[in-house]
Amino acid sequence: METNIEGVYAAGDNRVKYLRQIATCVGDGATAAVAAERYISELDDFERDVLQAGDKVILYFFNAYQSETIAYGTLLEEANQMSGYPQRVVKVDTATRKVLAQKYGVTAVPAALLLEKGERAGELKAADKSALAREIAAFAAGE
Fold it and tell me: Is the domain defined by 54-141 classed in CATH 3.30.565.10?
């Protein structure tokens, strides 16, 4: 039910479709309402968890249906603790929440972005725990 305008949804006779009946309009309305609620919830969660969370955050994008992205998330959490300067990690499941991935230009998962005051400051690139820990420590130190 999404339109080409972010946060705007279409339902019922506002959509191009073969069958125009009240029953299909009601279904469209319910689908659009759920999509709009998810969109608003995602923006509210981002505001609370990232923008108001403090100075630095790791924004981790994964897909709950891809086991390798879940495994990388575990590795990231371990490296974060190992860094000696653990940062807040906010997880975004791109299978159900796509707005933030689009906002930050994330096209493939897993992806771990480094944010300072909500702005992209970098990306974690390492694939092993020790190297990730060093990247996180450098981020925490402002390097």
Answer: no
Domain extent listing, the chain: 12-48, 54-141
pTM metric for this prediction: 0.72
What's the pLDDT tens digit per position in 65-83?
999 999 999 999 999 999 9
Helix axis angle for 67-82 and 129-141, nearest 10°, is 60
pLDDT (tens digit, 9 = 90+) per residue, 28-46? 778 878 888 888 887 787 7
Given a contact cutoff of 8 angstroms between Cβ atoms, the answer to whether 13 and 3 are in contact is: no
Q: How far is CA 78 from CA 29, 51, 52, 67, in A?
A: 43, 24, 24, 17
Strand segments, DSSP code E, in 10-137 are 56-62, 88-93, 111-116, 119-123
